[in-house]
Amino acid sequence: MNAKPRRILVVDDDVLFQKIALRVLADPASEIVIAQGGAEAIGLLEIRTFDLAIIDLGMPEVGGFAVIRAMKQDTRLRNIPILVITGNHCGSVVSKAVQLGVGAILPKPVRWRALPSMVEEMLDRPTSAV
N or C: the chain end with fewer CB closer than 10 Å? Predict the structure, then answer.
């Protein structure tokens, strides 16, 4: 009996990032879903279930922090592990991400070889109860 695929939401407005993420994370045990930005991500989170969210913080209109806050305010979504991608390495951004309960931070430029192992580690962590 096959286990259901793990569903990973990738939220980034950069098309090149999306294409590389799809290639790097390609795995028969995973379904990768792309959201072009924060608003689309929030819409997808309302209608689908995900096992992990990879979210770029620096997006126009609805940014990554808005998506994370929306997830943390929804009891159905608050325990989904979150990996953030950011080009802003200042302490206040990192501190804010940690305060919001982000599981890991991957700085830009992304070390693509590190991404699959980070994803596996986050998916293997037990989620905390609500």
Answer: N
Reported as a single tens digit per residue, the pLDDT across 31-45 is 999 999 999 999 999
Query: Of 115, 7, 109, 11, nearest to 52 (Cα)?
Result: 7
**DSSP-based three-state secondary structure for 84:** strand
Residue 83 and residue 54 in contact, taking contact as beta carbons nearer than 8 Å: yes
**For the segment 105-126, what is each residue's pLDDT rounded down to a tens digit?**
998 899 999 999 999 999 988 7
Domains of the chain with CATH codes: 6-104 (3.40.50.2300)
Structure tokens at 17: 């990032």
